Task: inverse folding
């Protein structure tokens, strides 16, 4: 780079290509109406699953040599977490072994 030339790296602000400001504003009005007028709390739920037997995908070997490993293709199980948040406060977290289906989620 030539002397005296300065480049500034600024983080981008990314927008989704299908984002619509008018639809977002309408959604925000609905949320406020549910909470303030109808007195209905907005609670956010999320489910996330974790494999019990996560295999390391990377390894070390001496220079110029390929690194080999093995991976058991039979799953040893999963642990799933379901959490609920209301006004930035955690309401509940449940852990389940095995897969989550509609019956478990709605229980």
Result:
């Amino acid at each position: 780079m030539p002397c005296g030339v300065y480049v500034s790296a600024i983080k981008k602000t990314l927008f989704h290509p299908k984002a619509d400001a008018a639809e977002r504003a309408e959604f925000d009005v609905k949320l406020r109406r549910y909470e303030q007028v109808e007195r209905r709390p907005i609670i956010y739920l999320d489910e996330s699953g974790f494999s019990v037997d996560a295999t390391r995908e990377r390894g070390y070997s001496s220079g110029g040599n390929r690194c080999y490993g093995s991976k058991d293709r039979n799953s040893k199980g999963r642990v799933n977490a379901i959490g609920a948040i209301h006004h930035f406060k955690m309401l509940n977290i449940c852990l389940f072994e095995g897969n989550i289906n509609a019956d478990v989620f709605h229980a």
Q: What stands out?
A: Helices lie at 21-37, 102-106. The mean pLDDT is 85. The CA atoms of residues 32 and 54 lie 42 Å apart. The beta strands are 44-51, 78-86, 89-97.
